[in-house]
Design brief:
13-stranded mixed beta sheet, about 375 residues, 7 helices, disordered C terminus, Pnp Oxidase, Chain A, mainly beta
């Protein structure tokens, strides 16, 4: 039988339950370190809900959308847009996970025109930014702080300019996450003793479990219903330049080079990323190394679709968990195995319990087989 999904709306500020939502054609995705997306459809004159209630429960920017799979929350976020189409009497709503709120907030509302210089663990910096963001009047959406920091929390220096309205809270958070030894960040969804939703910030040096803990080993053919192996020479590079602040020859520049591919006959293929505000040579070289690790040459990516009801059942694994996939097909007649972190997923829930539930995992390709 297909998994049963229910959808709930809550008030974004008070967390008060507004009511259930009879929606269809739902698509949900989530991933570490950035906001995931949601789309869903519905109709007015639906006998299951009064029109006014449907409108009130999907108000953009004010309501949160929650998806429950067999009484377990698998997605939560903010409804950001709603489109009404008169001919079909249809409503389409879109949203993003709660991380998206940080992109709509600026430190000016917290610091005024003051400057805040931080020199502390990177996990505690992100936790503190969320605490500051939610400390102002009308700025608290109920995301619980983390407050637990690893002894290995890497110390970073970050300057937050309250006067600078070009930098959102999310911009500052992302500037921490882009380091090669940056931490992981997400907002998880939990339920309290009454089954009501809770938003919990999680910031750790590395979120997720190795294969030895999760036992996430899947096969194609088998639990994997479809497998895609993508080789792309357009996006990767074997020499990455990172550009910080400065002018002309005095610009802060870092570089990272893959001597392995160059030594084996590959041509030199270069790419550049810009990192505004960086003036330290160690920091800019770390950015270049991170880019080379994430976007090497050749750039190989994997996609795997897993049936939600099969093994491993959706919900039995978490963000950041490692998975080993074994593939035998005409492209790899002798077999291919890869081990990567599952840093996100996209799911198409079945409508009203009917249809196929498919989960597409998003992998962190740069981790290689380090999770075993």
């Amino acid at each position: 039988m297909a998994a049963q999904y229910t959808y709930l709306a809550t008030d974004l500020v008070t967390n008060k339950i507004v009511g259930e939502l009879p929606v269809n054609n739902v698509s949900l995705d989530a991933q570490l370190n950035s906001a995931g997306n949601m789309t869903a459809g519905g109709h007015l004159d639906d006998p299951r809900i009064d029109n006014d209630d449907f409108i009130a429960r999907t108000e953009p920017g004010r309501t949160a959308f929650w998806a429950y799979r067999e009484n377990q929350i698998v997605w939560g976020g903010i409804i950001w847009s709603r489109e009404w189409q008169s001919n079909g009497k249809s409503l389409t709503i879109t949203g993003q996970t709660f991380e998206s709120y940080a992109a709509r907030r600026y430190p000016r509302s917290w610091l005024g025109t003051a400057v805040l210089n931080l020199d502390q663990g990177q996990c505690s910096i992100i936790d503190g930014l969320w605490a500051g963001m939610q400390s102002v009047t009308n700025g608290n959406i109920g995301v619980l702080g983390y407050g637990i920091y690893s002894p290995s929390d890497v110390v970073r220096q970050l300057t937050v300019n309250g006067w600078d309205l070009s930098q959102s809270f999310d911009d500052y958070i992302q500037s921490i996450l882009t380091f090669s030894d940056g931490c992981d960040y997400t907002i998880t969804w939990q339920t309290d003793t009454h089954g009501l939703p809770i938003k919990q910030l999680v910031v750790q040096p590395r979120i997720g479990n190795p294969v030895g803990v999760t036992d996430l080993v899947v096969d194609y053919p088998g639990a994997v219903s479809d497998y895609v192996y993508n080789e792309n020479a357009s996006n990767g590079a074997n020499q990455w330049w990172a550009v910080g602040d400065g002018t002309d020859a005095a610009t802060t520049v870092g570089v990272a080079t893959d001597s392995g591919t160059l030594g084996s006959g590959w041509p030199l293929l270069e790419s550049v990323n810009n990192y505004s505000g960086v003036t330290d040579s160690t920091t800019i070289n770390s950015h270049a190394s991170s880019d080379l690790q994430s976007l090497p040459m050749p750039l190989v990516t994997h996609n795997a679709d897993i049936a939600g009801q099969g093994f491993p059942q959706f919900g039995s694994y978490g963000m950041g968990d490692y998975v080993v996939v074994n593939v035998i097909d005409p492209r790899f007649p002798e077999g291919n195995q890869f081990a990567v972190r599952a840093i996100g997923w996209t799911i198409q829930p079945p409508d009203e319990g009917q249809g196929t539930e498919t989960v597409t995992l998003v992998f962190d390709e740069a981790t290689g087989g380090g999770g075993s």
